[in-house]
Design goal:
- This protein is an alpha/beta fold.
- It folds into 2 domains: 5-273, Aspartate Aminotransferase, domain 2, CATH 3.40.640.10; 275-384, Aspartate Aminotransferase, domain 1, CATH 3.90.1150.
- The protein has helices spanning 5-17, 28-44, 59-72, 76-80, 95-102, 123-135, 158-167, 239-243, 262-297, 323-337, 365-384; strands at residues 52-56, 84-89, 110-113, 139-146, 171-176, 200-204, 216-220, 301-303, 311-316, 343-345, 353-357.
- A 7-stranded mixed β-sheet has the order 1-7-6-5-4-2-3, with helices on both faces. The chain has a 4-stranded antiparallel β-sheet with strand order 8-9-11-10.
- The longest helix has 36 residues, at 262-297.
- It is globular and about 75 Å long.
């Protein structure tokens, strides 16, 4: 993900000044910029005017914080029984399970919900999952929907998922670390309809926002949801200073020392605006569609699915032997020769699939064509190897 030059320049200025957001007096400008940037992003996501949040180190910290907020909002009686559950798509990011482990919820806390052929969570199965958990005497703590899975780019049916979560009165968090960038694109933004129904939303703008790391965001629809993070330290945020309007962000983050990462995002938004960033998102989407069309037209390649966002999954079809070892080997051949970096994944069916993650809006169709030619050439060479 090549960062935008304007974002790099803004980040350099922050590094030179080296402020920290743990108290207002250390970063008055940074504090104001973060709050304003959060309001702009929350509005783009369709959250109410009261929404706010915090900048994070990335999608993992956003998911961890969202689950912590959901857990600590429950009555003490529910916390004491140790039978909390988190319900998420079977294709959800691994950080959901890791966050549950960090929070001490136990290995059985995360309940995966089946997806359809398109990789999206099935709301009916979610309903059954929540009902079963309660029937077993367990307490559903949070539903985590995914807006942009790492492989297919699948976006869960957010309005239907929100309706189920609301019916069971369960907190809804949407992990939009990848797909959230579609909000900038007027063409793709409708894919995220229903995002504003969530209680918390995670974004990661180092992907489809082209920001230097770190550029994670956690949005919350109601500032009161941040209450479990509230901290009071006399040397950082005394109550009378807070009451006088010297707002501290200490009680919004798991971290104390924290860079004003909002500054580079604010400068980018001011410079390019939604239209400018949306054009870059659309360009990456067009490259993905071009790659998919070329793959579908090539007899030796098999397209897994039409791209939703900017990822494309496919396989090389060898003339002889099993496809999985050939695909794994051709990828390593390209890496060893320094010719190309092609991703690899498995959708749970045991089949090795190759993956293109097209996040450079300055790439061309010719670049994509050349990459696929390299895959075909490496595959043909693997076809000739005795071990194939």
């Amino acid at each position: 993900m090549p960062p935008l030059a304007v974002a790099v320049a803004a980040d350099l200025a922050v590094a030179a000044l080296n402020p920290s957001l743990d108290s207002w007096d250390q970063a008055p400008g940074g504090t104001s910029v973060e709050l304003a940037t959060l309001r702009a992003l929350a509005g783009l996501a369709g959250l109410p005017d009261t929404a706010t949040g915090t900048f994070t180190s990335g999608g993992t910290e956003s998911n961890l914080t969202a689950l912590l907020l959901a857990r600590d909002a429950l009555p003490r009686a529910d916390l004491a029984d140790g039978r909390l559950t988190v319900h998420c798509s079977a294709a959800a990011h691994f950080s959901v399970a890791r966050s549950a482990a960090v929070l001490g919820l136990g290995p059985q806390a995360v309940i995966p919900v089946d997806t359809g052929p398109d990789g999206r969570m099935d709301p009916r199965v979610l309903d059954w999952s929540l009902n079963d958990a309660r029937a077993e005497g367990r307490t559903p703590m949070c539903v985590v929907a995914t807006a942009g899975t790492t492989d297919l780019g699948a976006i869960d049916p957010l309005p239907a998922v929100a309706a189920v979560a609301r019916r069971y009165r369960v907190r809804l968090h949407v992990d939009a670390a990848y797909g959230g960038g579609a909000l900038f694109s007027r063409r793709l933004a409708p894919l995220l309809d229903g995002l504003g129904l969530a209680d918390t939303v995670g974004l990661d703008l180092h992907k489809l926002g082209w920001q230097p790391v770190a550029a994670g965001v956690l949005l919350v629809r109601d500032p009161q949801l941040l209450a479990p993070l509230e901290q009071r330290a006399a040397y950082l945020n005394p109550a009378d200073d807070q009451d006088a309007g010297y707002t501290s962000l200490l009680g919004r983050s798991l971290r104390t020392t924290r860079r004003p990462d909002a500054f580079k995002v604010a400068v980018t938004l001011r410079t390019l605006g939604r239209e400018g960033l949306g054009a870059l998102v659309d360009r990456c989407h067009e490259l993905a569609r071009h790659a998919a069309a070329r793959i579908a037209a090539e007899p030796r390649l098999e397209l897994t699915a039409e791209p939703v966002l900017t990822t494309v999954l496919f396989r090389y079809l060898p003339r002889r032997g099993r496809a999985d070892p050939v695909n794994a080997a051709l990828r390593r051949r390209l890496l060893a020769r320094g010719q190309a970096v092609v991703g690899r994944t498995d959708l749970g069916d045991g089949q090795v699939r190759l993956k293109l993650t097209l996040l450079n809006p300055y790439s061309t169709e010719a670049d994509v064509d050349r990459l696929l030619e390299l895959v075909l050439a490496a595959g043909a060479q693997e076809d000739q190897e005795p071990s194939s």
